[in-house]
Amino acid sequence: MTVSRQGGAWMGTRFAGGVVVVALLLLGSSALVGVSGLRAAGGGAAGTFAEGTAVAPTGSALPLPGSVPHAETPMAIPVGDGPDAVLVDPVNNTVFVANQYGNDVTQISLPTNTVVATIPVGSEPAPQAMALDIANATIYVVTSGSNNVSAISIPGQFVTATISVGASPDAIAFNPANKDVYVANAGTGSVTIISSVTNLVLATIPVGSDPDALVVDSVNHEVFVADAGSDNVTALSGSTNLVLNTTTVGTAPGPFGAMGFDPTDNEVFVANFGTNNVSVIGGTNHTLLATIAVGAGPSGLVVDPAKGEVFVANRYSNNVSVISTALDEVVASIPVGDQPSFNGAISINTVLGSVYVPNSGSNNVSVISVTTDAVVTSVPVLNIPDAVAVDSTNGAVYVADQGSGNVSTFALTSVTFRASGLPNHSTWSLSVGLPPLLVTNTTVRTSGTIVLLEETGNLSFTILPPSGYGVASVAGPRSPTQSVANLTSVPSTFVIKFGPIEILTFVETGLPAGTPWGIAISPSLAHGGPPSQHANTTGSSINFSVVRGSWKFQVTSKPSLYAATPSHGAVGVAKPVVTKDLKFKPLTATVVFREVGLRGGTLWQVNITGPINVSRSSTAATLKFLLVNGTYTFTVWNFSALHPHPASGSLTVVVPHAAVTVTVEYTASLVRGSVGPTVGSERTDALAAASSRTETVGLIRPG
Fold first, then answer.
1. pTM of the full predicted structure?
2. End-to-end alpha-carbon separation of the chain, Å?
3. Which CATH superfamily is domain 2-10+20-26+34-53+75-413 in?
4. Burial class (CB within 10 angstroms; exposed 0-12, middle 13-18, buried 19+) of 274
5. What are the tens digits of pLDDT across the range 592-650?
């Protein structure tokens, strides 16, 4: 399969089973863990946390994805000075932003994205150093400059306790198993343990030098501490608060909280900033299992337990290394923006299957598909993004822009396009968004699937069928068309029904040669059908290339004095060639001759000459004629005993006007000078001259 971005940069994605996945929706809900790590767990408070466990082929070479453009700049929410930590509380629908230079925390309402409170805390909140206790509706903020931790009531929007800890605290984690908060004190080489129930210090445990990252083992309920100054990792018991083991790793482990736990394999991953590698530690035996080389300056790390991969942001090589937890080796290297994860921020939305990497040097966020291990879009944000958090419930992303005093926010969702009605191994494509992303898929049996990760709102796209096929319909939520779908935070699936292209021919009869006429056709579907078509011609037929299905038609142009039969209707196209006949007839006037004076049952007749020559006779009192435009003469039968008045005359048909009735009165007086027919033995060659008159007759369309 092929993925490319016209005017941008994209990498190809893997293909299997007729599915192109640019971003995959993982079934089930996200496995949310307590904030643990630097600055919080596995990449810090930069994520959503809760208590619990965890038809055009595209053959050109593709550029790297680090500079993929994005159509729109996200919404910006003004916060405090120097925002460099952000955390989402999905239960209380709140986002918290720690402002390092403003010495306060901004509280944002999720439903409205408006600031609802600004809460003063101690001096210099540490980057990424916030933890959330959802059960007690409390957020904990580390302030390095004042050597304490502020406990903030989420509903109350105020500080409920200020807790003194060691010197230069710069990492924090919450352990939901024992309801305790762990604070790494870089200046004193210790970890302070705080009860979240009483907000009192329970213990201070000496660890290695310069501890700067924490992660909670949600399987064994232990806490691992990365000691950057002594190049080791300390394991603490969650029940006894005792040191269980010290494991030697690489140089400067856990920078900015680059540490994570994999509950599936019960392993701890820690990035070593100085040696450009990642150490893997067993969660049960606390021994070093593997050392994996990654990019230069690994400073951000997040674990995807569902995929079995670890994503490591490398600050100096501007890429993300993807480690397989099963193989303990790098399986992909993904170029991103400049200086990714400068303060250790990297986040994952396991519901959407996407990783978010803020690039402080290029002022954007790279969005990576965990399924394809490739960048799917790059979202521009404001100055120096260095923290990111996601709300897995609605796909919203919040980015702290330290250099601008704002939080940028945007929402992504999963959208699936599923093909049906194509033969096995058919190639079809989607061109999506602005600038357009071209994604190509090959069907397996009769279907294929393309999954995208896109911003919520209206998504523009173009469907490119294989040769000989067209799009019969697009069906899905919120009535999509064949070019626009409305996306919400709920993942959407749109089914594209393809069908063979056939020829629909309209053939006319009745028009003079060279006369222009036209037809418009449209699908019979209320929405999601193929586009309407229109054509004019001076010939006798019009051909349309259409996809199989039911089509409505309308005669849109014709001579003003002609009527089409039928003028509109529907025609089913279910075979290679379908022909619809149209008959054009001149519009006519209704002219009625009505006699008075004849005995009932007497046969009488009117003869008309002109553009149309016609004679009608009847024993009824009226004779009806349908006449086209023009001037006519008429004569009325004369009898030897009774004579018509008028016996002859002329009339002009003008289109379109109401019908006209000519009354013929038979009397016994003979007016000589007229010539006309008689009936039977009463016929005479000489008729009395009858007075004549001219009638102007209006037109009505035949019924």
1. 0.71
2. 59
3. YVTN repeat-like/Quinoprotein amine dehydrogenase (2.130.10.10)
4. middle
5. 999 999 999 999 999 999 999 999 999 999 999 999 989 999 999 999 889 999 999 99
